[in-house]
Amino acid sequence: MNLFGKGVFYPLKKGILFMFNYILLDKKFLLLLFIINLFGTIYGFIWYESQLSITPPIFLPFVPDSPTASLFFTIFLLFFMFNKNTPYVEALAVTSLFKYGIWAVVMNLFTLIIDGSLGWQGYMLIVSHAAMAIQGLLYTPYYTMKLRHLVVASIWILHNDIIDYVFEMMPIYSSLTTYMNEIGYFTFWLSIFTIIVTYRFTIHKHSSMNK
User: Fold this and answer.
1) CB neighbourhood size of 145 (10 A)
2) Domain-by-domain residue ranges, the chain?
3) What pLDDT digit, counting tens, does each position of 88-102 carry?
């Protein structure tokens, strides 16, 4: 007997999924999520202010990775609340949120290992960036992105890796500076993993459901 398919717990599973989808589509919840991401984006750009002040103008769009990711998602939410889809923004949002959400969690944990301690801001960044990675995936059933949209988003996040680790515009983590080569290598493969995860959760999953 399959307890998690059409078995005993199937009605419960179906009810939980219904409630979950109801919450994700609720206008008040969407508005709250929009406000949180909007203020998180503003805070993120402020956090990067000192680094942006010494960044050559040509690289400015590619330095504040996390706030740019949350900005993409904020734009997605704005249109989604009005029942409009923006597939290029969706692709940029989910890939950027997942990649930089995971990246920031790992880097702060790495800082904790290297320094032996982490300030409250570091723990706040761990929680907020983990939430970033999760929220982008939560809305994958509602994205309308196709392969061409994912290709553009993939070019964006891989291009950011080049800007960060070839032109040395990476985020400043003072205690991790001596590990930039290793971090760059990790970040490249995180980008590849992000592209695969995004494809599996969106394009591949949607095509399988339509068969």
Assistant:
1) 26
2) 27-209
3) 999 999 999 999 999
